């Protein structure tokens, strides 16, 4: 089981950031939320802020943690810890990903997500309707 923190980053235009894994990564070309594996001695939100800086070079603030989602891929299982984050500043410079896009919540389900992210997207969409 791997533990992965991921960030649903919202901007002030009501859009959400999705990043696409590169061909060289596992789950190639799948869309995901930026983030990565939790390291020893790190809290989940420390992981997310560290990974966003590393992968995108931007500054964000955590607004809310969503429920963890456990999923099983053919070769490994994953506990995904999703956070809703607010974009603060900086220009996105991709260090690992193939591409990124900002899109409105109603378009999120049109992307080809890593399977573990689909329940996260649904949870996020339900949280918006409350
Ligand atoms: N970052 C991230 N990874 C995800 C998501 N959904 C999902 O299934 N994954 C999977 C893809 C990878 O197999 C794993 C995360 O590993 P990673 O390689 O991106 O993380 P990392 O940068 O910390 O790892 P490493 O290269 O340092 O070993 O979780 C998601 O929304 N965000």
Describe the structure in your own words.
The chain has 130 residues and is α+β, with helices and mostly antiparallel strands. It has one domain: Nucleoside Triphosphate Pyrophosphohydrolase. The protein has 2 helices and 8 strands, in the order ββββαββββα. The protein has helices spanning 44-56, 118-128, and strands spanning 2-10, 15-20, 31-32, 35-37, 59-65, 69-72, 77-89, 99-104. The strands form 2 sheets. Strands 1, 4, 5, 6 and 7 form a 5-stranded mixed beta sheet that branches. A hairpin with a 4-residue loop joins strand 6 and strand 7 (77-89). It starts with a strand and ends with a helix. The model has no long low-confidence stretch (mean pLDDT 97). 8-OXO-2'-deoxyguanosine-5'-triphosphate binds next to strand 1, strand 4 and strand 7. 8-OXO-2'-deoxyguanosine-5'-triphosphate binds at residues 4, 6, 26-27, 32-33, 35-37, 78, 80, 114, 116-117. InterPro entries: MutT-like, Nudix_hydrolase, NUDIX_hydrolase-like_dom_sf, NUDIX_hydrolase_dom. Its EC number is 3.6.1.55. One of its GO terms (molecular function) is 8-oxo-GDP phosphatase activity.
């Amino acid at each position: 089981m791997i533990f992965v923190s991921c960030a649903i980053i919202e901007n002030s235009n009501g859009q959400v950031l999705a990043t696409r894994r590169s061909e060289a990564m596992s789950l190639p070309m799948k869309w995901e939320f930026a983030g990565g594996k939790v390291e020893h001695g790190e809290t989940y939100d420390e992981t997310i802020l560290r990974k966003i800086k590393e992968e995108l070079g931007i500054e964000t603030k955590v607004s809310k943690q969503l429920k963890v989602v456990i999923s099983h891929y053919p070769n490994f299982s994953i506990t995904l810890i999703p956070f809703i984050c607010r974009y603060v500043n900086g220009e996105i410079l991709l260090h690992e990903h193939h591409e990124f896009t900002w899109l409105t919540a109603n378009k999120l389900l049109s992307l080809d997500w890593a399977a573990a992210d689909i329940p996260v997207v649904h949870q996020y969409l339900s949280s918006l309707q409350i």
